[in-house]
Amino acid sequence: MITVGLLGCGNIAGLIAAHRPGNIRIAAVYDRHVERADDLAGRLGALACHDFNEFMAADYRVAVEAASIGAVVDHGEALLDSGRDLVCLSVGALADTAPRERLVAAARRAGRVLRVPSGALFGLDNAKVGRISRLTRVLLRTTKPPRALGLEAGARQLLFRGAAGECIRRYPKNVNVAVALSLATGREAEVELWVDPAVERNTHEVVLEGEFGAVVITVHNLPSPDNPATSRLAALSVLALLSDLDNPLVVGT
Ligand SMILES: NC(=O)C1=CN([C@@H]2O[C@H](COP(=O)(O)OP(=O)(O)OC[C@H]3O[C@@H](n4cnc5c(N)ncnc54)[C@H](O)[C@@H]3O)[C@@H](O)[C@H]2O)C=CC1
Ligand SMILES: O=C([O-])CC(=O)C(=O)O
Hints:
It comes from Thioalbus denitrificans. By secondary structure, the chain is of the alpha/beta class. The chain has helices at about 10-20, 35-45, 50-55, 70-80, 95-110, 125, 165-170, 175-185, 230-245, and strands at about 1-5, 25-30, 45-50, 60-65, 85-90, 115, 135-145, 155-165, 190-195, 200-210, 215-220, 225, 225-230. The chain has a six-stranded parallel sheet with strand order 3-2-1-4-5-6, with helices on both faces. Strands 8-9-7-10-11 form a five-stranded mixed sheet. β4 (about 60-65), α4 and β5 (about 85-90) form a beta-alpha-beta unit. α1 (about 10-20) crosses α9, α4 (about 70-80) packs parallel to α5 (about 95-110) and α7 (about 165-170) runs antiparallel to α8 (about 175-185). The protein is globular. The two termini are about 25 Å apart. Oxaloacetate ion binds near residues 119, 173, 174, 221 and 234.
């Protein structure tokens, strides 16, 4: 049984709770909105933590952050130092070298692992060959319905083109995947962020070229029910990651 503490009781946490398989028990939940923690804990029979100290004191093996970049910056190190693995969805917190190195150092000190799930993307598994064999192009082209960014647009519109680190600074709730792709490949991704009133799904195109050859992967993600910016796949991907922690047969690089 894998025991989990959920940091953040919003949309992804709700999906994790609804779809969790039998080998995962959510033992404790924490949100800065106390009523969200109470509500989710009530549905799960978990401990509702009303502040971060309570969450630290609770008994679970893996912390899953589904909150915000700020939550990772504020609490990531303490969670790792306490001897838990940390699964981090707000990957934008790892875009800059200094905070990333602080978290990695904490994981190393504690002998634990900071895990970045595939989230809303497919293809991070073999994208990791970029750390072994040269890639000449790493591009993420993301297209979302305007409402996912709280915008109205009459036509397809390019919001941003440039480096992943700059894109996540400008759109911290929409392109965590760009930072995940950069970390996987070891090369900062170029990003195009579009809004398009003609699309219903959050669409991510991953384009990689290099010594291995070339690949284009397009993911057409259903948005999640309570947050159109976030794809359902991101929550399911965390459950797949957690399920593998105790698995004697692990598939995928
Ligand atoms: N890596 C990936 O592929 C993806 C990552 N994300 C990221 O995952 C995170 C969660 O997404 P959702 O569940 O859709 O968001 P949400 O907004 O529905 O829920 C986030 C919850 O966390 C709580 N929270 C935020 N900061 C907190 C803090 N410092 N301390 C305690 N509670 C805090 C909020 O009150 C809220 O209830 C976001 O940062 C989002 O950008 C979303 C989609 C894909
Ligand atoms: O859920 C998605 O499609 C991607 C997303 O919001 C993110 O990476 O922050």
